[in-house]
Write a structure and sequence with these properties.
Layout lengths: L1 H10 L5 H6 L7 H13 L3 E5 L7 E5 L1 H4 L3 H27 L10
Antiparallel strand pairs: 1-2
Length: 107
């Protein structure tokens, strides 16, 4: 679950709690998301600061430590993004064309 939060911050351009909560395809429960953000902050992987445009909002950012995560750790995260995109496109095409399901090619 924590890698999903890091993925969304890194690749999803999400910075606020509400964005992380509502725009994640995994539909993380709000209490779980809050717990993960707290854990990531304590581990030094995420930082939080007040949003100057809104008193009640917080901006979450990746720290140097999370940006420097080994490529081997982030490779499955990147794979999940590209795989999900390919699956969604294939499913949309099959519904649109009413044809058989397309076989996906994972490089």
């Amino acid at each position: 679950m924590s890698l999903i939060v890091i993925r969304d911050l890194m690749f999803g351009n999400r910075r606020h709690f509400r964005e992380l909560l509502t725009r994640s395809e995994e539909r993380i429960a709000s209490n779980i998301l809050a717990d993960r953000l707290t854990r990531l902050e304590k581990a030094g992987l995420v930082s939080r600061r007040d949003d100057p445009s809104h008193k009640q909002k917080v901006i979450y950012s990746l720290t140097e430590a999370s940006i420097a995560l080994p490529k081997s750790t982030m490779r499955p995260v990147h794979w999940s993004i590209t795989t999900r995109t390919q699956w969604v496109r294939s499913t949309a095409d099959s519904h649109r064309n009413k044809s058989t399901l397309h076989r996906l090619s994972f490089a």
